[in-house]
Fold this sequence. Notes:
The complex is a heterodimer of chains A (651) and B (305).
Chain A: H1 5-10, H2 12-20, E1 23-30, H3 37-47, H4 53-60, H5 82-87, E2 94-99, E3 103-109, H6 117-125, E4 129-135, H7 142-153, E5 158-164, H8 173-187, E6 194-199, H9 223-229, E7 242-244, E8 247-252, E9 255-261, E10 266-267, E11 272-276, E12 281-289, E13 292-293, E14 297-298, E15 302-307, E16 318-321, E17 329-340, E18 352-356, E19 359-372, E20 379-380, E21 390-403, E22 414-419, E23 425-431, H10 433-439, H11 448-454, H12 460-468, E24 474-478, H13 485-494, E25 499-503, H14 510-523, E26 526-530, H15 536-543, H16 552-573, E27 577-579, H17 588-591, E28 596-598, E29 604-606, H18 614-623
Parallel strand pairs in A: 1-3, 1-4, 4-5, 5-6, 24-25, 24-27, 25-26, 27-29
Antiparallel strand pairs in A: 2-3, 7-16, 8-9, 9-15, 10-14, 11-12, 11-16, 12-13, 12-15, 17-21, 17-23, 18-19, 18-22, 19-20, 19-21, 22-23, 28-29
Chain B: H1 11-29, E1 33-36, H2 41-54, E2 63-66, H3 73-84, E3 90-93, H4 96-100, H5 105-129, E4 133-135, E5 152-155, E6 183-186, H6 194-204, E7 215-222, E8 225-228, E9 243-248, E10 261-262, H7 268-276, H8 295-302
Parallel strand pairs in B: 1-2, 1-4, 2-3, 4-6
Antiparallel strand pairs in B: 5-6, 7-8, 7-9, 9-10
Helix pairs in contact in B: 1-2, 6-7
Amino acid sequence: MHHSANLIEQDIHAYLDQHEHKTLLRLLTCGSVDDGKSTLIGRLLHDSKLVYEDQLAAIKNNRENTQDGEEFNLALLVDGLQAEREQGITIDVAYRYFSTAKRKFIIADTPGHEQYTRNMVTGASNSALAIILIDARKGLTTQTKRHSYLVSLLGLEQVVVAVNKMDLVDYNKATYEKIKSEYVAFADQLNISKIDFIPMSALKGDNVVNRSENMAWYQGPTLLPFLEDVEQTIDRVVEGFQLPVQYVNRPNADFRGYCGTLNRGSVAPGDSITVLPSGLTTTVERVIGANGDVDRADSGMAITLTLATEIDISRGDVLVHAQHSFEISNQKKLHAHLVWMDHKTLALDKDYELRLGTRHVNARIDIIHYRVDVNTLAQVDANTLALNEIGLVDVQLDALMPIEQFSRNKGLGAFILIDKITNATVAAGMISAQQADMANHHRSAFDIADANKSLEDASAKEIVKWALAFEGKAIVTTNFGPQEAVLLHMVNKVAPDTEVLWIDSGYNMPQTYKFAAAVTEKLKLNLTVYTPLFSAARRDAVMGGIPMIGDPAHAEFTEQFKLGPFKRAMKEVNADIWLTAVRREQTAVRQEMDTVALGPNKVIKVSPLLDWTLTDMQAYLEKHSLPDETRYFDPTKAEADRECGLHTLGD
Amino acid sequence: MIPLAENRLSHLRQLEAQSIHIFREVAAEFNNPAMLYSIGKDSSVMLHLAKKAFFPATLPFPLLHVDTTWKFREMIEFRNKVAKESGIELLTHINPEGLEMNISPFVHGSNVHTDIMKTQGLKQALNRYGFDAAFGGARRDEEASRAKERIFSFRSKQHHWDPKNQRPELWNLYNARIKKGESIRVFPISDWTELDIWQYIYLEKIELVPLYYAAPRPIVERDGIKIMVDDDRMDIKPGEVLKQQWVRFRTLGCYPLTGAVASKATTVTDIIQEMLLAKTSERQGRLIDSDQAGSMEAKKAQGYF
């Protein structure tokens, strides 16, 4: 008989309405073979009246492994495969389903056996909550600690500690309290946000579904009502959506849809979006859900987006809200915890396929920082990782990957590694916090050499994207000289509001002023203009205009009309990142420059176009129909290949 | 505290999204996928979900029906109607050797019939078309051996399943890598229960083979099972009585192997009501499970879906 039998009999439509609005909770059960885990699940199914008579009859015929006082072996309801049943243990991840009036539950049932870290990690990967079973007679064991560590590593939001077999300790409150305080002390070193405790006997049915008469001292909820009411993060509002593009749907020339499952946040028609890693931007046109067009799609929905403009997007790209794109960084190096899942041990510098979001890329593990002893949580030196071992590693990727820290976002923080020869899934990876710090690059903890190395193969657009992903203020400078629209356009595509800084010496050509006005108008630049404190007209009148190069007065002129205003500007705008359009082929000094360098006031100076040629620049202008003005003269430089000194200022 | 979202997804909408995600993943990763279409309610739900996944395009893969020649006639009618829908490509395969040998569940028994017409027929069809991925409508709640099945379930060149050597499956990151000749069986409705399926049929008004709904049908009781006499290939044994009875079917397969249940449930809500108040599980109507404990696992290892 079903739990809601009366309602079903009297008003099936009311029942269906209730069922239609149920939520879903995916949970994990962990405990050892002897902690009574299968019995607990069997008890949940049995007491919530979800076991059919034929299933019950099948296990009643089977008297094996029946425990004392047990009418039949509840665990048999749960233990699946024949071969495993013969061995008396569950050796893989099995999924169990049951539902109550409030919720549908999916239980990932994983073994507590020593060798099977792999299975537990697999089960935990899709669970929001873990039930950790402790045998009240034994208290905290090594296994309890290991399971708790794994649950914390896999980012589960909450844990319910089921102190089981209370019947075998005479339902003693002190025993329960001691276990509880020991666990709280232990869990302090882990990262689990919410922990609850319930004393129970799955075998006798105490506090699983029905309240125990033997433990009147316990005032909290029994397990099932607790699971029915527990809140999940998936139900919470998060700013900024993420859509890893899974599939491009192009049935005809008129429709081009980008399909995927919303990782987080909400998206609506009209939203400005950025494509990662390319940094291209556009606007959402239609949002199509499972039942057609919607005004808004929320986290967890499988959707299709159409966009206002046709831009290059393919499977593996990530669509995000333009104003939140800085939260994600494009990386070629990951700092991550790995759980090794294959019989073949980890090989350094071997090519693996890495899958993250909907993207796959060739990857190598180049450093193992340490292995974690899951029993003591100690960090030990390691040259490799074997089956069921966990370590912190650096992974090198062959292409840029948009990522986030796993604890912030599993969607772009979790990955798997696949052996390219055997095709086995060999590891689960979780991008660690340190990586995120590097990604949200603060100026203080930033290594210039590392940054240049990581950007070695990056395109100009990727470098712009990378630079604008910094936490802090970014600016781009321009002199409105030839091809200046290139970088301004590129920056604008990623972050349209970026402050554009122009040092106008007052000595520019009329064409330059017109060009400046035209570009500012066309790209809707957020322009800030700095001028010398001494005007050009005044200098002309009283100081005899522009001195010749070689004249000692020229340096003073340069300082007065260019470097002075520039230094003042840099101090006042106080930027963290400075983007410039310098190119190697322009001058000898620029030949030797690096993409990333330190500039005045410790600003990080980024030159995305360093390797571009004049032809590249012209092609870009043409492709994007951008205005240009080649008539240009800078009196502080006087000659095209001479530096004014602005790009050679130290920090 | 961050506030609760006003329109959080119900469990059915979450299941729907997960299934759609799986369909798209396969379409993106494989060269030549197909959907195994059994004409039953699970297949109908699967097809409905696949259409949603690729809307407004049509399905980027064909349906494959492995016909045993013993399916209910109404199933074949329904199948042919579905095949006429625009954008649906239906392939059918019948094991030619089985046809030659005139395999019959009445003469050869359910095990031989199922093996030759279904298991071998399926392998032949997969080899013939060279499919590298095949969607199936199996659900983990159906039977114990299915509870451990992966969503992307690897099959060897011989179409064998090795329950002890399955690829770990983490988050929603599926390993689609195979070598030539190997394949993946994909189960997009793994996490749906029988109740979820019915609830979804109700909500989405999905059309089903009429056999799921109760009606007076010609029934013979054999070994305690109500068998519908669907054509003249079934002999009425001495002592058996052919009677019109109000019945419906909880699962559909080969008519000689599929037991009917007495029922007056003529609508989806009637069925849900009856199912929820029932005392026996769904697969009880299928003869192949009751051969021996663990029989499904043995069949699956051999390549049965």
